[in-house]
Amino acid sequence: MIELYLKTNEIKKLNLISQINYKAEDIFNIRIIDSTEKVLHEISTKFDIDISIFNQKEDIEISSHYLKTYDQLSFNFSIPNYNSNTLFREEEIFIIIKKGVVFYFLSSNIDENFVNLTKTRYDFTSINFNSHLEHFVFQIGIISDYYADLTEFISKKVKLFYENILNLKDFRSNDLDLIMILNYNNLLIKESINNFQRILQILIQNKFEEKTLTNKINLELDDIAVISDHIQFNFDRLDDLKENINSKIELEQNSIFRTLTIITVCISLPTLIAGIYGMNFKNIPGLEWRFGYPTAIGLMIISFIIAIVYFKMKKWIK
Question: What would the pLDDT profile of 95-122 be if each residue is shown by its tens digit?
Answer without folding.
Answer: 888 888 888 888 877 777 776 666 666 6
